Amino acid sequence: MVVKGVSMKNEKPIIFSGDMIQSIKNTKPGVWPAEPIDPEKPFKGMTRRVIKPQPFIIQKADPGHIDVWGWEFAKNDGMHWTEVSLPRKQEEICEHSRYKIGNMLWVKEIFCKYTPINQAPRSRFSPCEETFCVYGYKADENLPAGSRWKSPLYMPRVASRFLLEVKSVRIERVQSIPNRDVMAEGINESDLQILCEKFFDASICNLTSASNPTKTEDCYDCKNTKKNQFKVLWDTINAKRCYSWEVNPWVYVIEFMRVK
Description:
Number of helices: 5
């Protein structure tokens, strides 16, 4: 579906996992800062995406001084900053982000494509033309018989059901996430136990022990810290990509409003 008044040149795809799709579904359209439809369920109004390539320390500071971070570009002098100068350089740095303020992001997710039983295909050479096709989504768990899930990489624009408008972009280290952002990242107080049971990995939990390698009696103390909740979620997605919480990568923080 194409929204009237939105330039196709201004649209860009973005992929979200099934849990985050559920959070987007519970986000009020046309409201920013984002608000939940059902306050008891998670919502999503921002996402953190790893910066690639990662900035690196261009100049290592002497003790008591500040490191200089940035990139070196072949066409100019590059982009440099310190923790002190970063706030005033945010706009200039974020020009290198794929997603910029004003961009419309159409959401890609795991999906399937099929022809309803009551619709005969137009010909045997085109068994699923757009006129007759229906799309299903794994986040809704509605896989029709005889169909199979497809990677979000292959989702066409016409199958996307959510459109997001980028409202702000900034960069920061992932460990710098403030508590107020955790809820807007799509998790809530009940999610930590679910995440641990679904994705548990001893390497991302510092509460494990040799005598009890899976959990300790203090395991769910993590729920007392919102940042620890986000740490678990972050590592389930990014640890295997070498961008774990402990690595503390630089990320783009992209805030958005759900349009539809």
